[in-house]
Predict the 3D structure of the following.
Amino acid sequence: MRIGTELLAAVAVGGGLGWVVDTYLFASTPWGLVIGLVLGTAAGVRNAYRAAQRWGQPKP
Amino acid sequence: MEESPLHPFELHELIPLSVGGFNISINQAVIMMWVVVTLVTALMVIAASSRRLVPTKLQNLAEILVDFIRGIILDTMGKDGMRFFPLLGTLFLFILFCNLLGLIPGTYTVTSQIVVTAVFAVSMYSLSIAVGFFLHGVKFLGILVPPGTPPWLLPMMIPIELISQLARPLSLAVRLFANMTAGHTILAVLFGLVLSGGLLIGWLPFAFTVALYGLELIIAFIQAYIFTVLSCVYLGDAITLHGHSEHAH
């Protein structure tokens, strides 16, 4: 559940930022959305990786 | 009898109010929040009033709660985090009581409104950013560059880290909201089956309702815990800048 939301949220933010860049900043449809989604997926994987890393860690 | 399973989430304006064009009507959610605030305050004030060496039952409960929150903070932020104890303790108790009281039939679950969870998530996240800039100044932007990144990767890592930072408040808000809404919807659907099933077959979904109710009690606690832990982790990241999660390897 935690990992899932972590992944989805990052993809949503990435896609959203890409879409905003497309529609309001430059008329670059659809490239902002595409790049945003790719970066968002990468960020999601990274967040999920971090979340999982925290589990295995011995408590300080 | 046949009503939508989403019916418990509808808000009704009990006392319509409007100030300067803003609708600030009193609805069930507002009343539930007042109830929660009153209950938490009463519990803590009454429990702390006697301060006996051999605690009363109520004092014992309050001590367990306070010690639990203290444990969360010490585990995630260390001793530095204790100055956020009043804030994080209030946050945890408020969310916990909202979740638990919402399970009583007929009451309203405040945390099933995304407005509420989003406000909590965004304000906790903004606080961590503010604390980071306050403690580290411009160097805090270094949180966008994980240690050990080769320079040629920077143009890619910075956008990725930026997105992963911005995703934090969203995932924080959606997690709590989705858990509470989904749980209550399932309970409502199952109980709807009990009502339409009658005595002959109705006991089966009723048994499931009872079992799931127990599960929901656990989830109510876990979600309050997760929300507080993640707020602590974000604050801790801002305080230590590349906190312990990066030292692990």
Notes: The first helix of chain B runs from residue 28 to 50. The interface with chain A takes residues 75, 78, 156, 159-164, 166-168, 170-171, 174-175, 178-179, 226, 233, 244-245, 248 of chain B (CB under 8 Å).
